From TrEMBL:
Keyword terms: Membrane, Transmembrane, Transmembrane helix
Protein name according to UniProt: ABC-2 family transporter protein
Transmembrane region(s): 51-72, 84-102, 122-148, 168-189, 201-222, 253-272
Organism, scientific name: Geodermatophilus obscurus (strain ATCC 25078 / DSM 43160 / JCM 3152 / CCUG 61914 / KCC A-0152 / KCTC 9177 / NBRC 13315 / NRRL B-3577 / G-20)
Amino acid sequence: MTTESATYERPVSSWLTEPSLATRSLAHDARAVLFALRSEWIKASTVRANVAILLFALIGGLLVSWAVATFVTDEVLVVAQVGFYWTSVTSMLAAIGGVLLFGSEVQHGTLAAAVVARPARWIVAVAKTFTAAALGLLVGAVGLAAGFGGAVVAGLDAGDTSALGATVSWALLFTTLSAVLGLGIGMVVRNSTAAIGGVLVWGFVVENLLNLFLPVGVARFLPFFAGNKLLAYANDFDTPEAIAVALSRSESALVFGGYAGVALLLGTVLLYRRDTD
């Protein structure tokens, strides 16, 4: 009795999907991260909240910069300065976007499916981190374009543009890290409303109060206080003592990036230790 062994030919379409292996190699992990990045970007680009954030960054930046340039007449303003005023708000918008990258998945119950598809949860964390960074960079670029556009429309002089390129880079780093910080907070808190409320209250209220009462040597290490030092303009509330001990841009970036890294690391640890539902 003879038997013919059936041959199985892998469908062409299966090569376009993420492979499933019992043991993972470095190449497989790299492919898994790429598949996860593609999935995360599709989700981020189709969420209406992110579209609303970008529109708010654009319209708000145009209106605020134009209004400041038009109605503030007691000091000489230039485009190279006013263009960055909106970035403080843009950083908050980027942080909100980062929170929603994780919080919306928890809210709508899609996190469990994402983890089932990729049991190695660090892949999910890495993909969301890169997506948050890209979103923060995009929001920052839109906000800067709107800020400079509003100042130009108002008819301001360009001012000193010799360091403009470097300052734009620092501002984009600020919004990029803000989105990563928001992602980390969202991974820790897991409730979008609570996380967004906490970010806004901390950034706009708590830090300003702490800045009034803490010694200047301590206040300079507050997260958004350090982040705003990456921008071009000087804070009118800074005292001579605060200016004397102010951190450099590189040091401020390390402080703010440290907060983002700690929040992300803690969120990743909790992603492993918590249930997904």
